[in-house]
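ingest -> validate -> predict -> emit
validate: passed (alphabet ok, no gaps, 336 aa)
predict: started
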Amino acid sequence: MKKITSLLLMLVSVFVAMSCVDVDEYSDDPKGNFEALWKIVDERYCFFSYKNEEYGLDWNEVRARYSRQVDDGMTEDQLFEVLGNMLGELRDGHVNLYSPFDNARYWSWKEDYPANFSDSLLRRYLGTDYRIASGLQYRKLDDNVGYIYCPSFSNGIGDGNLDEALLYLAPCVGLIVDVRGNGGGMLTTAEKLAGRFTDEAVTVGYICHKTGPGHDEFSQPEAQVLKPSAGIRWHKKVVVLTNREVFSAANEFVKYMKCCPNVTVVGDRTGGGAGMPMSAELPNGWAVRFSACPMYDKDMQCTEFGIEPDYAVSLTDDDFRRGEDTIIEFARKLLN
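emit:
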């Protein structure tokens, strides 16, 4: 079993080998770019079987349906719209089409659901004198509960920063780690933070790699192992707060934390995003990004469509009128 970070290093060489999709055989015209995109995704996307089971996705049927919308007389804008809509059939927030004038994206995984988060309510809890360390915002709440708000994993978090934050919060009776709105970033950052909440190496999930063009051609699952940090670790109760905007590396963080002792997850189902993405290029120079390596939880269950909380709690209109964040308040009650 390998540490999660070592898996990421290995993926670099895998991605280089896999990204050499030959698109030269396709002409740089609407039909050629359509066929190139369909083939790239057909051979390299990793969730076809899973999404066929979940909602009946049939990639061959998608090709037949969208190919009728492509002709040589269409404009670049029209082609971009058709290709973007075709990729939307995958229902994957890691799938994008990039052109000089727009980025096609699928955001229904969060936009079709309540936010269950309010920046104005958050500021009532953080105040103006909260501490900041490597993007983390933290303070002691008035009932002696520690609170850390982590809005992104896009940047690294220093070991020294985590030591100082946890040392400052050490007298607290418990800790809230709020990742609502965290759209992901670097898995290494998510791993580093989660490593503060376990005293032993723990298998938190599995990852597979694409080994061929077939929809089900994958390597054997390899364990993702979370190792404890060498720095200060937290041993009291922890509540992780989630909503639908928790995606990608943040989704993985929740997966890791559910394997750590004394951790409870409160809020809404996460947004998912359990595929390691890679990119390729179309004949016209547009880039496509897509999920290539599926990741699973410790029970080999796919988390592409999110992770359920231990306690489902939502914000209501009454919460806004009272000026209280019910999700934070629920967590405080659990810790007290």
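Residues 4-18 form the longest helix (15 residues).
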